[in-house]
Specification:
Number of helices: 6
Distance between the termini: 28 Å
Radius of gyration: 17 Å
Strand content: 25-35%
Number of strands: 13
Helix content: 10-25%
Largest sheet: 7 strands, mixed
């Protein structure tokens, strides 16, 4: 089975990139399941329903979450609904809306998808989150991975050390651990020694000639003169599509391979 994990889809430019490139990539690589990070989907913050439906129409089967997942109030019913293929971080407090893991059905069987938030994520570092290692242990105790054809864990965080640690911590326990949030792809995609596919950061979809999808003209004054500015999405110039393709062994439920698929136009 082939699973494609697509990096952070950054606002309207990112949606257009996915719409343009994903259908052909899905056919070319015989992809069975497409998972995309959607927490930046709508204007860079959260998920609007119409944008989520556009991703689905383009060929995305499931969306993972991050620190902006709850920003758009209209997404709450989607996140609460066990039948809608979108989640927020599982280590948010139980009092917060949404679900941190759900399953998705593919021809080969059910796939379990989990999102986790790192303990240090920029301005959100002070917000209450449970320990991600303990949280995933609890989930795997409830949802035995042997019940599923594959288990994919998304880790949305700032520290490369956290992303690396959780990969090795879960090696052999899940099919893949995919890091994101940086919007910059790392060069360390690999199958770990015990069979779990891992990458520190998968990257993003959207503007290449930008600051993580944002116009330089709205970022530089903030850094140069400490002047408050509003993020403006870069909609011109070169665009990028970053993802990883994971082949899953149907017997072991672990990874045979992981390769990066990156496109620029």
């Amino acid at each position: 089975m082939n699973i494609l994990y697509v990096g952070d889809v950054m606002a309207e430019p990112g949606i257009k990139v996915v719409e343009k490139l994903l259908p052909n990539i899905r056919r070319k690589y015989k992809v069975d399941l497409v998972i995309a990070q959607a927490e930046n989907l709508s204007d860079g913050k959260g998920v609007r329903v119409k944008d989520f439906r556009r991703l689905q129409a383009a060929g995305v089967d499931f969306c993972t979450g991050g620190n902006w997942s709850l920003h758009q109030e209209e997404s709450i019913p989607l996140l609460n609904d066990p039948d809608e293929p979108i989640i927020r971080p599982a280590n948010y407090p139980d009092s917060m809306p949404g679900k941190g893991y759900k399953t998705v059905l593919v021809p080969e069987g059910k796939v379990l998808v989990v999102s986790l938030l790192g303990q240090i994520v920029g301005r959100d570092s002070g917000k209450p989150t449970a320990n991600p290692l303990k949280t995933i242990d609890e989930i795997l105790e409830i949802e035995k991975p042997s019940k599923y054809i594959a288990t994919v864990v998304n880790f949305h965080g700032d520290f490369s050390s956290e992303k690396k640690v959780i990969g090795y911590y879960l090696d052999s326990k899940v099919s893949a651990v995919i890091g994101d949030h940086w919007h910059i792809p790392t060069a360390d995609a690999m199958v770990l020694p015990k069979g779990t596919a891992h990458i520190t950061d998968v990257g993003m979809c959207g503007s290449l000639d930008s600051s993580l999808g944002v116009e330089f003209s709205s970022i530089i004054p903030r850094w140069l003169n400490s002047r408050p500015t509003r993020n403006v999405m870069e909609e011109t110039g070169r665009m990028q599509f970053n993802s990883v393709l994971i082949e899953i062994d149907p017997v072991t439920r672990l990874a045979r391979s992981i390769i990066q698929i990156q496109k620029v136009y």
